[in-house]
Amino acid sequence: MTDYSEDLAAVKVPKQRIRSILQGLTFGGADEAEAFVRSLGPKEYSEVLSEVRGQLKDYQQDSPGKAIAYEMGGATLPVIIASLFTGGSGGAATTASYFPRLAQIFGSAAPTSLRNAAAVSTVQGGLTGFGKGEGDFQNRAKTGGIGAATGLVAGTAISAAAPLVTNRIVDVVDFARRKLGGRGARIVETELQRLAEETGKSVDEIIEGVANGSIMAENRTLGDALKGYVREGGSAASRIKQTMTQRPTQTRNDAMDEIGAGLSNTANPNILAAQKADEITARSLEKEAYAPFKTGAAPDEVTAALQQAINAVPESASALNRVFRARTGTTPLFKIKEGGDVEFVRPPTVEEAELVRRTLSGMANKEFNPASAAGVPTVGEAIDEVQTGLRAALDETVPDLAATRAAASNTRTARDAFQDGLSSLSKTGGADAVAVEFDEVMKKGADAVKSYRAGVMQAIRTRMGTGSRESMMRKLADPELKEGAILRVVFPEDQLPSVLNLINRAANSQAAKGKILGGSDTAIVQGQAARQGMNVGLGDVVDIASGSPMALARMLGKIAKNAAPNLNDGQRDQVVQVLLSENADLVRNALRDESALMQLQQMAAGLAQTLNRSAQRASAIGAASAPSNSGLLNLTNAR
After folding, report:
1. What are phi and psi of 398, to 5 degrees?
2. Most buried among 132, 200, 595, 625, by the most CB within 10 A?
């Protein structure tokens, strides 16, 4: 009889790599899925299923190690795919959010604890045992039970053990990052991250604020923390006291310089003196301009219009005589005859005719003034018509006088505008009254606007020289307060954002000084001191998420009230240097490590999580598959 055993042994069993991978991916259900699809053709489902399972069994018996390895590789595919979309740190966002346990079972999300890993491994093993079982439901339930038991043991064991290896990789990279990258101790980095979170701002917003001149210490929510640092004493406390004492004055001066540049625009810090000098210069120029009109008789048309004007407003005679007597020290320009008509003592000059016109204009304005109890607007209208007629005669016959008058009028308007601005902060009606007044000033031209703003600036400087100096920036920063509202009315609109930034900085600096160096909030300060170094940082999160028992112990130690580690003096000083820094690059480097070593650490952390999750799922499914590959499940089915 011919022995064919050696020939049969030489027959090479076809590899079933793809099918083995799919079996691991689908909890042992790929064979039935393939049979269903192929049964849509000429072959029956049972025939195809028997063929596929036969080929898989032959491969498992011929190469048991490779077969189980490929199945475990298939089990890791969901983890690897999810990691590609999440940087290795988590699962598919949508699935994990709405179906967290389902995502963990299929490998697109990581188990959240060792207990959770045990439950997930049990289900994964059970599904694999059930999927690879044969026969009726009862037989499949038995194989599922065996798979659940083996998956529980293997998956839980790997979940506990794998982080002990992968975390060491992350620790090595973290050590290199701190030593080679010049980073501070983890407790310093963690404390800075805690304080940054307490500001309520993102790291980008914090960095932008520093770039614009603010410092982290001036954030209102950090006042208690800084007060706690002062209470601890040492170099950090000295640094805080020095900076927070000097900075309010510095920021206030910066703001005042910017306000002055927008309002007064003068090199002389004494605005009153500068305004007085400008006024004296303007009056001197006015006298020079009027000089040609002091001599020589006025044209006949002007003399006639002048006589008619005084006759029309006889009550002006007394005031006019006082004016001319004061100017000449001799006989007045005119006298009133018995019939009431005006008779000139000497021929009037053009300048004297202009003085009469200005006197009549002043009388008209007095009648219009609401503050004058004796004022009668209709009388004012009549007198104004008289002075307007005289003005027309002067302008028609002496054209050069109009330009001179306009220049003189601008000088007087600017002087009045300055006085109005000077009283703006104490004006009845507050910001609304100033807004109305400033609208009128703007109609009078650029010189009037400039003088009004200079008056407002002097009013602010006066307030800054009193006991309200420290609160003035707060008032200017608040648009609801009178001072802040008036500033926004009169300040040049295009420069307003810049000056408000400086004012807000000065106000925040003063408030921070009061909060940090002011009275004692004992309970809050003690609470802040107790929390120093208590936050969980990036390294801790990586360790805990990967299931490290040591990391969990460290976390529990941090949140234990009596075991909270405080920063030492040197570490507090490192933190304070960042909180008080005006260097945006320094703050960015402290709050956000963007170095290549940090990127390497993040990659290592993501890879560690991926490896941990892959090992857990592969071990659970592989352990459940092992009995089937060895024939144990088949033996169970046969029974």
Report:
1. -130, 80
2. 625
User: Cα(471)–Cα(484) distance, rounded to whole angstroms?
Assistant: 12
In a shared domain, residues 110 and 242:
no
CA distance between the termini of the chain: 36
In this structure, the answer to whether residues 20 and 122 fall within a common structural domain is: yes
Residue 434 within a domain: no
Q: How confident is the model at residue 92 (pLDDT cuts 50, 70, 90)?
A: very low
Same domain, residue pair 225 and 307: no
d(CA 274, CA 396): 37
Of the three residues 374, 397, 420, the one that is the final residue of a domain is 397
310: in domain: yes
Pick the residue with more confidence: 304 or 182? 304
Query: 627 lies in a domain?
Result: yes
pLDDT tens profile 542-570: 455 555 555 555 554 444 433 334 678 88
Summarised one tens digit per residue, pLDDT across range 94-111 is 455 556 666 666 665 666
Q: Where are the beta strands (DSSP E) in 45-86?
A: none
What's the mean pLDDT in 528-543? Answer: 52
CB atoms within 10 A of CB 596: 9
Number of separate domains in the chain: 3
3-state SS of the chain: helix, strand, coil percent to 5? 75, 0, 20
CA distance 615 to 612: 5
CA 161 to mean position of chain CA atoms: 44
The encoded tokens of residue 69 equal 């390895």
How many C-beta neighbours within 10 Å does residue 146 have? 22
In a shared domain, residues 392 and 308: yes
51 and 35 in a common domain: yes
Mean pLDDT of 254-273: 77
Residues 19 and 159 grouped into a single domain: yes
| pLDDT at residue number 532 | 57
Residue 2: count of CB within 10 angstroms of its CB: 4
Q: What is the pLDDT of residues 400-424, one digit of tens each?
A: 887 777 777 777 788 888 889 989 9
Residues 533-545 have a mean pLDDT of: 52
- Residue range(s) defining the domain that contains residue 594: 186-248+521-602
pLDDT tens track for 96-154 = 555 666 666 666 566 666 677 677 767 766 676 676 677 777 777 777 677 677 766 66
The Cα 540–Cα 543 span in angstroms is 5
Quote the pTM value.
0.52
Long-range contacts of 57-62 (CB under 8 A, 24+ apart): 57/634, 58/13, 58/14, 58/16, 59/13, 59/14, 59/15, 59/16, 59/20, 60/628, 60/629, 61/13, 62/13
Does residue 126 sit in the same domain as residue 56?
A: yes
List Cα–Cα distances, 149 to 139, 218, 244, in angstroms: 16, 59, 65
Judge if 57 and 147 occupy the same domain.
yes
Token output for 144? 């599922």
Is the four-CA dihedral 509, 513, 516, 519 of positive or negative sign? negative
User: Considering 397, 417, 436, which residue would you say is the last residue of a domain?
Assistant: 397
Quote the CA–CA distance of 165 and 567 in Å, as a whole number: 30
Specify the DSSP class assigned to residue 405: H
- Quickly tell me which residue has 């004494």 as its tokens: 270
Q: Is 71 contained in some domain?
A: yes
**Could you give the CA distance from residue 172 to residue 463 in angstroms, rounded to a whole number?**
61
